[in-house]
Design goal:
The chain is an alpha/beta fold. It contains 12 helices and 10 strands.
Length: 344
């Protein structure tokens, strides 16, 4: 019969410890059993990392494409700011905007409009030139420059073919604006447009009264009685006022002669024709100031239905914007322009 005490002692006796070799073998067996699971987990982790990296590159590429697309759109919309103007790639019609006051430092200046016309008419694909005019007038000198290049545009280089030049008055075509239109082969105006104002005005500011109030005096030393005319610091003498009126009358003769020569159907007996008055389109048609009442889109569809159309707008270039005098001389320019002769 077994002794319970001896049996209990036998059971509580620790087993023989495993050898290092046995432990190592068991660990290797465990790793071998876990290897497929570890490989699966590692593969899944690598796949997650690869997918994350892929989508990161997709997002970066999409962002780069979006930025590039916006840059292209911005460049196209502001290309004129950098001096770029598109050109016709096939036979078509060039439309140039002449909008606002005509004169130096304006978008409708000769310096900006003349190069656009020259560039358009140097392209043999330009089959017709249209000037869309919306201007109350301005400098006769700039208007004359623009009119001269319009005349040159009518002659196609190395060809006996004449290029038609059309003026479409869209809103206002007055004074120097009408002077430009008179150089076109044909003048069209929309029904509500204001046309004419054939006259000359010379105006300026005079600060003599304000200077007297504050005790300010101006010193002028001239070589003749007319050299000090048009001074903003004092009132002109009677002789200087007559001198200014003579200049205005002389300029008016030139303007009147131009209109009569360019508009052979003009009804010269029309009252106030050369008084500076404006007419709406239908009365202007009756007295020969224009050739047709209509709008630009209808004219293009009727006369050039199958041709490409290219609109050019003069814009301030980057160079103009970066010039310091553009900002610092703004007030001085405004004062100077107020004293210059202009057709209006």
């Amino acid at each position: 019969m077994t002794d319970p005490v001896q049996e209990a002692q036998a059971q509580s006796t620790p087993s023989t410890p495993l050898s290092t070799e046995a432990v190592t073998r068991r660990a290797l067996d465990l790793l071998e059993n876990l290897a497929p699971s570890l490989e699966l987990m590692a593969g899944a982790h690598v796949k997650v990392l690869r997918d994350n990296l892929f989508w990161q590159w997709v997002k970066r590429l999409a962002l780069a494409v979006a930025v590039f697309g916006l840059a292209i759109i911005y460049f196209i919309s502001t290309a004129g700011f950098f001096g770029y103007q598109p050109s016709l790639s096939s036979p078509g019609v060039i439309i140039i905007d002449v909008s606002g006051a005509i004169g130096p430092d304006s978008l409708a200046s000769g310096d900006r409009i003349v190069p656009l016309i020259e560039s358009a008419c140097s392209n043999t694909n330009t089959k017709a030139l249209v000037l869309r005019i919306n201007s109350p007038g301005g400098s006769p000198a700039d208007a004359e420059r623009i009119g001269a290049v319009m005349d040159r545009c009518k002659v196609v280089k190395d060809s006996s073919v004449r290029r038609p030049v059309l003026a479409v008055i869209d809103g206002v075509g007055a004074s120097a604006g009408y002077m430009i239109a008179a150089h076109a082969d044909r003048i069209v105006a929309n029904s509500m447009a204001l046309v004419g104002s054939i006259g000359v005005i010379m105006s300026g500011l005079e600060f003599g009264g304000i200077m007297d109030k504050y005790g300010v005096r101006s010193r002028e030393y001239t070589t003749g009685t007319n050299k000090g005319a048009f001074s903003p610091y004092r009132e002109d003498t009677k002789a200087q006022a007559q001198y200014a009126q003579d200049l205005v009358d002389s300029a008016m003769v030139e303007f009147k002669t131009l209109v009569i020569e360019r508009r052979p159907g003009l009804v010269l007996e029309t009252p106030d024709l050369f008084s500076g008055r404006v007419w709406t389109a239908r009365p202007a048609l009756k007295i020969g100031l224009i050739d047709e009442v209509g709008v630009l889109e209808d004219i293009l569809q009727r006369d050039y239905p199958d041709m490409q159309r290219q609109l050019l707008r003069p814009r301030r270039s980057l160079k103009d914007t970066m010039q310091v005098e553009t900002w610092t001389g703004a007030f001085e320019t405004a004062i100077r322009n107020a004293s210059e002769m202009r057709i209006q």
